Amino acid sequence: MKYKGKAIEILGTKEIFGQEVVWISVLEDQLFLQVAMEDIDRQEETFSMAHLRFIAIAAKIKDEVARKKILAPYESSLIPLPHQILVLEKVMESQQNRFLLADEVGMGKTIETGLILKELKLRGDIKRVLVIVPKSSMLQWQSEMKEHFNEVFHIYDSEMITSMARTFSNFNADEEFNFWKQHHQIIVTTDALKPLEKRQGWPKERVDEYNKYRIEAVLNADFDLVVIDEAHKMGGASQTVSRYVLAQTLCNSVANVLLLTATPHRGKADHFRRILQLLDPDAFDGEGLPKIKELEPYVIRTEKRLALDYNGKKLFNERLTHRFDVALNIREHPKQLALYTAITNYVRQGFNSAKKTNNSAVGLIMILFQRLVSSSTAAILSSMQGRLERLRNDDDVDIEAYNDDVDSLEEESINIGDFDGLYMDPIEDMEDEEGLLSELIIQAKNCINSETDAKATALLQKYKDLQQKENDSELKILVFTEFRSTQKMLHHFFLNKGYRSTYINGSQDLEERKIALAEFKNAAQIMVATDAAGESLNMQFCHIVFNYDLPWNPMMIEQRIGRVDRIGQDHKVQAYNMLTDNSVDIRVYRVIEEKLLMIIRQLGIDKTSDVLDSALDMKKINHLYLQSLLDPDKFEFSGEQWLYDIKLKLRNYKSTEGILPTIQESEIDPQKASEIKHSPLAVWLEDLVTQYTSIRKGKLKK
To answer: What is the CATH number of domain 319-325+452-655?
Structure first.
């Protein structure tokens, strides 16, 4: 067929005021025109069946798309869950695209982000995207964006940025050589980007050069959307903290911002407001916790208890948490018990001395030592050796070799930045500390060589019992510890007992973590992980978690369990919190976990994670641990006083029905997910391509 002497293809037909009109493609000129059918020179040709079918299918697709509010779910390889569709609709219906996605752990915030990103791209609103995530999450983000949304993201880690900065600096690079413009979609870590004010040994020119190729270059790269995962970590202690400066600078430079965190407020109004000011500095320029009405235009949260599947059934199974007491008695573990007692006495003496002299560095190491001995003999031995060597040769020891054992301590409990002095300052009131440490080291080595670790032995027996109970010799368990020495001990302990074990910690690069995760999913029975490495990893193929040592912040336990209590979990999740009899930890656990949860139930509060995040003051929890360590006789009184204060907070929480605006069950419509699941669009599109290929006499490969 031809139009004005040129070959054409007919793309569609319709009737306007009684006249037949056709859409045509003029092949020679690559033009698309709408003309009257009578002007077409048919040359005695007739439409093939493929051509007619192509036109009919195209018309059906056009009508179907016109009825839809959102298109991203139809462009994805997965069917979004009802609450994820609702989140997408809420964002798209808003006048602004600056939101805090605050779903509970395991609810699929990454998928929600992918849907929003895809929708904005389909509408032509964005093209360039920067995603800022923890180092441990980079590969997961890259994989999920590609697998579910066919979106290609490039990872820019610190090494790559440093290498490119070095290369580009040789060219006197200006904006036209901005390497952040090489790719439209980039994943980067916070620490790789955050600006420097100064660095020891660096002149100002070098600091300026460092910032030029990081934060300054990013600002000039014209990103349309900034996504910040684990956004609560950006709040910092004040607006001058480098992470917050980074987030504030980036968020102020783009129109579209998504902040992701399950724990945005953490019980601190000023911290929460700083996070919210990243979305709108004016709306949240005040004091105290914002009211729900103020938050509703910016915050979206779905709770696990309300989440539904495609059939309208509850998405998450019941979770069971068990206290797992480990007996440390003189009959079975005399040397380990003696070591625990000796270390506790050393810690008490050291802390009291540090308190008198106001030596916070020594005070910190004493607290750390108590946590180490509660974790494992291997962990306390490693740190005692580090301290002794530092005391003997304070300028000749590589501190990093010892600091590396601490992989996940809470920032609010112990300031890791203070560790540089921990091994250097002697305890002033202690006679011959070096001699005492030498004796304790010998005692610890003797303990390791002649006794099995009480907690490790108990863990193994519990694992065997669970294998038998569930009739599954390949049963998988996830074991969390805070210390790499404990992790190493456990990993080798399981291997030596004939079990397949793997591990993940903060010292591994992204590829090593990816391999370890795949090994756990496909072959290993046991994964031993630290908090730093376990963050943001999805392990819903496992349903049993052991907290081998307990973080001081109960919310960290919630985060750990959230690694397996996620969308796609088919089993009832079980968590075991391991505690040694008569230890400092067990006294505090009884107050924080058991009595606190009893109060929560009495008040009829079911948003436990919100309560833990908003009501708990870490300084007061630290004080409880110290009270349990230094003056056990007065601990019961301190614990009751703490519970009384918490109860007052919780009553206020109950009266205001929480802090965050939460999606209601009545808003979640499983029918929308069902419509997407059963939509004919995918079949029609495949048929459309098939017919077009036939018309063009081409070949189609699937």
So the answer is: 3.40.50.300
Q: Beta strands 6-16 and 2-3: pairing type?
A: antiparallel
- φ, ψ for residue 329, nearest 5 deg: -120, 165
In b/e form, how buried is each residue of 432-460, taking b as 16+ CB within 10 angstroms? ebeebbeebbebbeebbeebebbbbbbbb
pTM for the full predicted model: 0.68
CATH architecture of 90-302: 3-Layer(aba) Sandwich (3.40)
CA distance 516 to 524: 9
In 3D space, the residue among 69, 71, 68 whose CA is nearest the CA of residue 94 turns out to be 69
pLDDT tens digits along 87-124 = 999 999 898 899 999 998 888 899 999 999 999 998 89
The answer to whether the beta carbons of residues 517 and 537 sit under 8 Å apart is: yes
| pLDDT tens-digit readout, 240-283 | 788 888 899 999 999 999 999 987 876 577 888 999 999 999 99
Name the DSSP class of 220.
T
- Contacts for 687-690: CB closer than 8 Å, 24+ residues apart: 687/53, 687/57, 688/54, 688/57, 688/58, 688/61
Using alpha carbons only, what angle is made at residue 355 by residues 630 and 413, rounded to the nearest 5 degrees? 70
The token pair at 59 is: 């018309």
Chain region(s) in the chain for CATH 3.40.50.300: 319-325+452-655
Q: Which residues on adjacent β-strands are paired with residue 478? A: 527, 545
Pinpoint the residues of the chain covered by CATH 3.40.50.10810.
90-302
Q: Are strands 225-228 and 98-101 parallel, antiparallel or unpaired?
A: unpaired
451, 637, 659 from 643: Cα distances, Å: 39, 10, 21
- Report in angstroms the alpha-carbon separations of 76 from 111, 368, 537, 592: 10, 47, 22, 43
Residue corresponding to tokens 């409880």: 624
